[in-house]
Structures are given as structure tokens and as C-alpha cells.
């Protein structure tokens, strides 16, 4: 006979399942019918999503269990941090707090829904009631706390700082000063005025982002991640570099979807890092390779860690334009990572022997996953549908494909239909659970942006940045690089992108850089903060899995990912990489690709065959910089030609090696 504790746990699990399935079903319905405006939809999604998140927190604190595999992707550790101290104080009561927060999330969303017409049309003219202000303040508090629990104190501290700055304006010195805001103003502009929390960020998140995150959750439940790992393992057994390059590719694919370099490192790294270590790869290099590959996945179209959808909405350009602009820079980054990893594996002798022919039956086992991907590409690129519509058709195709596949493989029977339906409902639940932590952080970012724009701080920072740099392009870019890395520290992809775009990108645009190029520039450096010490969240997670030293792993990650810090400057100086034209794009892409290989040779001290002495590393570095940034195409061609000749023809093995595997 079940104990009361078991009964309560089952009841809570059932409630989570029902809400998760209902939220995904509602998302698909809204994508199909769109019965009301996006702000109203965002409110419904906010209430259900935050409530679902808090119910999971309740289950964790009360029962100490998490039965949804997708929920394990969270990599926040509470011990020793500010959040950990808060948790220790709340302690035994935290389960009740989270349960109350779930109820409160539904309550405030219901209040906004019942008063939506008044809040949208009458209240801005006739004024808001005290109850309105209280509800607005509660919404700000709820989304801030949900963000703290999901992603740690980093983003929540920015929310607190933004609100404190908004309220302390009259007492601040110099350019930081402003007229100030009361708590009622914070509640109004932060939430209840249908701005801030309900701004464009949550709107994009609860439409374009949500449909893809839910699709990704469904795909994992249907076995897509297992399929990728199986193919990778089989392919790794047939390559000289073993599973290392497979780890890079799988991390790239999953990183584009997850929206968090740290979460992706935790998810794919739990499989790839042990496999690399078994192959003989040193633990710090294994962790570094995974963390760099996972960070770069955020830059890869078509999803770009869900930042592509937000970027298209901010710039008011077609989503396909974002894919086109981001494609070559992303390929450059992964090409550089792939070359760096290959050089490292060859340099240290971490190669494997081929074990026979590739088992093609593994590929056939997951061929059905190609069907929804084809639908996704066709609807986005050919039909030019919005991501919301494309996501709807892709998700429905995934479900339909699974029914056809299971009926064909397992045989047509009632049991097959029942099992597939149960699997589909689990996919609905897992998709909603994957999305739930992101709802709070997107809403919290809306609060930050509202406070910064209402006080004018964003504009002031841009003006000061240009002024300090004297309007010189390279100085502005270097300052923007540093600021983007700082603002991106510890942030998930959407939060990092939004913050740097609001604070840093306008300064670059002021000195003549096109908008879309400026957005990609700051976005790339915000993503590279995941491998940049002293924070380097992706490196920290990878080092923890690999049992490697954090600082040593961070150093190796910088060596492998070094070209990533040069590539954003390359697409500033070679604009045809972003704005495609023939033959300029092909020519400059080829030149930059060669320059990147030369740069990798310089940073790794290896050219694929020989250890490089300091003179040759310096020569490769010089040729790469000329190929990447020279103002004249002829000069770039010359440098790329010399670099290519050096990589292909020199007999560097006659020279003494500066670094050998035993000395590294």
C-alpha cells in the first residue's frame, strides 16, 4: 500500500505531466490558429511555463527526485555561492515556497488575462490601480527568482542592479544620473504596463523559440540524441582521429539547439569526454575540446542557440537573412576548431586504428529523422514561412513520421498505436519541461532592457564607448569585444545576446558597421565568454566531467578556440562574408579559410605533419593576419598563397621542434 509521501509525489508528477502536455498542445494550437495577439499569448505561456518550472523545483526539494531526462541539462551548483547561502537559509521550507510560487504564477497571469483589455487600452490613459502595481511587482519578483533557480545568480544580479539603478537615479553621479523611478514605475514598466516582462523578447521566446525548443525536446524523447551518439561512436571507430572529431560535430549540432554552452557541455560531454579519454586524449584536452565545440554551437544556424529568432525580430529582417549572414562565420569557426583538434590529435599521437567498414545499418536506423529536417529546411528556406509556422509543420511531421515508422517496424496493432501515442505525449511533456526554465530568463531580460532604456543608460554607454575610442573603428571594436565578453559571462545564449545588443552594438553601428554585422560581432564574443577565464562556464563544466584542472583546461580551450577571437574582426573587414555577392564571397571565403588554417598552425605549434619552431609560428601568424585583415584583396591573396605553400610544401621536420608531446 502506497504511503502518503508516495501518493503526493505521484500526484505532483501527474500534475507536471498534464501541464507539460497541455502547454505543448496549446503552443501547437496557437501556431496553427493564432486566436489572439502575441502579448496575450505570452501572458498565458508565462503563467503556465513559470508554474511548470516551480512545480519541478517543488518536486526536487520535497521528494529529491527529477524523473525527466531533459531536466538534467541544468548545470547550476548551489553550494558555496550566494544562491547556495540563500538556499541554506530557506532550507526545509523551500518546497513550500516553490509550490506557493507556482500557484502565484498562475494567479498573476490570470489577473492579467482577466484585465487585459483595461491594461492595454484604458490604464495607460486613466491610470493603474494599487492592485495593478502589486501584481506587476510580483511578476518581476517571480521571473527574477525563477531565473535565479534555473541559471544561478548571475542574471538575477543584473536584474537587481538594473532595478536598483532605475530607483537610485537622482543620487548617482555624472552621466549615470537620471530622474529616477519609484517602485510603482518599476512595476509598470517592468510588467503590468504590458512592457518589460511582456516585451518583444518574451514574445519571440513564447512563439519562435518555444516551438523549436519543444520540437527539440520531442526529438530527444523519440531517440534523436541517442541516434546521433550511436552514429558518432560508429564513425569514431573508423576515423584516424577517432571520436574526437565526432565529438566536435555532435556538440555543434546539439549546441545550436540547447541555448546554453554549459548545458550542452554537460549533456553531450557526459558521453563524449569519457569516450575521448578512453581513446587516450588527455583529460584537459578532452574537456577543452568539448567546451569549445559546445560554445561554438550557439553560433551555428539555423537556430544559433535560439538567438537567431530574437535577432530577426530585433533587426526586423527575414529569418532566412539571419541564417545567410551567420552561416559562413559559423563554418569558419567550426572549420578552425576541426583543424585545431586534428592537429592536436596528430601532434600528441592520440590516433586510433581503423576497425573495418562503417556499419550502414546504424544510419538506416535513424533515417526517419531526416523527414522532419527536410520539412524544416523546405518551409524556412523555400516557402519562407515564419519560424512559428515552420516549427509547427516540423513538429507535426515528426509525430506523423514516428507513427508511420513504428507501425512499419513493430507491425500495425493497437499496442503499437498506444505505445507511440504514449511516446508522443512524453515528447510533449519533455518539450515543455525543456522550455520552462527559459520562460523566466526571457521575461527577466525584458525587465533589464526596460530599466536600461527607460533610464537612458544604454544610449549613454554607446556614446561613451565611441567617445573613449575617439571614433576609431579598431578601437571601438576592441572595446566592444571586451565589453561583450564581460557582459556575456555566465549567461545563457538568449540573455547574453540581448544584453550585448542593447548595451554594446549601438556603439559599433555609430562608427559605420552595418546593423546585422554589428549584432553578429557582439554576439560571437558574448558566446566566447563561455571559454574565457576567469568564469568560463563551459570550461568549468567540462573540467568537472573530465576531472581536469580548471585553469589548465581553460588554457587548452583558448588554444583550440583562439581563431574564434579573430573571426569576428574578419567579417568586419571582409563584408562579403555577411553580404553575399559573386564572386567576392567565394574569393574572400577561400582566403579567410586559408588564413584560419595558418592561424591554427601558429596557435597549436603544429601544421599537420611537423612541430613548429617559434620563427615558423610567427611567420604563420603574420600571414594569417594579413590574409584575414589586409585592406587590399591582392595582398590577401598573396598572403594566403604563401601560407598555403608553407602548409603544403615546407620540410619543417628538418628544423628543431620547440614543443614536443613529452614536453607539453
TrEMBL record:
Keyword list, A-Z: Membrane, Transmembrane, Transmembrane helix
Pfam families: DctM
Keyword Transmembrane: yes
Superkingdom of origin organism: Archaea
Location of the TRAP C4-dicarboxylate transport system permease DctM subunit domain: 139-579
Transmembrane segment boundaries: 12-32, 95-114, 126-143, 150-172, 192-215, 331-350, 362-383, 435-453, 465-489, 495-513, 520-545, 557-574, 586-606, 626-647
NCBIfam families for this protein: TRAP_fused (TIGR02123)
Name under which the protein is recorded: TRAP transporter fused permease subunit
